[in-house]
Specification:
The chain is mostly helical. Helix content is about 75%, strand content about 0%. It contains eight helices and no strands. Helix 4 packs antiparallel against helix 5 and helix 4 packs parallel to helix 6. It is elongated, with a radius of gyration of 20 Å.
């Protein structure tokens, strides 16, 4: 079995899986979405804390439902793109959905940091409580950031910034269709089972 797997994946290179320069795009997108959202929360709470419209908008932006739903569609589309890696349209659709999901996650991250910075009563904590809070908060923010960055990474795997198929997807298309279909189908079925509405 190990020999069969090695033969099937031997034409992949390490560079097919490492973003390198493309990672700058991910951080740029993160900054242009998260930083304005953070500033909006600070501004709204400092000058218009009594305006319910602003507070409702922040609360709705913090909700994970939109990210979960669109992200589920993105992962489903990613699986389809793997199954039909010889075609460009499935990869294009998956790329757009995953990119939008990542942007929404960046926006939510900015809102979350803003809310934490203005609402949590750090002044009333003793030194060890502040330390514990900062460590815990920092760890959770790193987890959330990496979780959202994983969505961007999947979009990187299937399409380049230029709109062309990635090297990974091109090489995947050279594999036997059974392997491509099996990998994509596993993702599609997993997402379907995890996110199918319960009746």
């Amino acid at each position: 079995m190990k020999t069969i797997l090695a033969q099937q994946f031997r034409h992949f290179a390490r560079s097919d899986f490492i973003p390198n320069e493309s990672l700058k795009e991910a951080f740029f997108i993160f900054f242009i979405w998260a930083f304005p959202a953070f500033l909006f929360v600070i501004w709204a709470n400092a000058f218009y804390s009594e305006v319910e419209f602003y507070q409702a908008a922040i609360s709705e932006g913090l909700g994970p439902n939109l990210w979960n739903v669109i992200g589920s569609f993105g992962l489903f589309a990613f699986g389809v793109a793997l199954m039909f890696s010889k075609f460009s349209i499935p990869a294009l659709i998956a790329k757009q959905i995953l990119s939008n999901t990542y942007a929404i996650g960046c926006l939510t991250f900015g809102l979350l940091v803003g809310q934490w910075s203005v609402l949590l009563p750090i002044e009333g904590m003793v030194w060890w409580q502040r330390g514990l809070f900062n460590i815990t908060s920092g760890f959770l923010l790193i987890v959330v950031f990496l979780y959202n960055l994983a969505i961007w990474y999947l979009s990187f795997l299937i399409q380049k910034e230029s709109g062309k198929k990635s090297d990974f997807l091109i090489k995947l298309g050279h594999m036997h269709w059974v392997w491509r279909f099996a990998m994509g189908l596993c993702i599609v079925l997993l997402i379907t089972l995890l996110f199918i509405p319960e009746t």
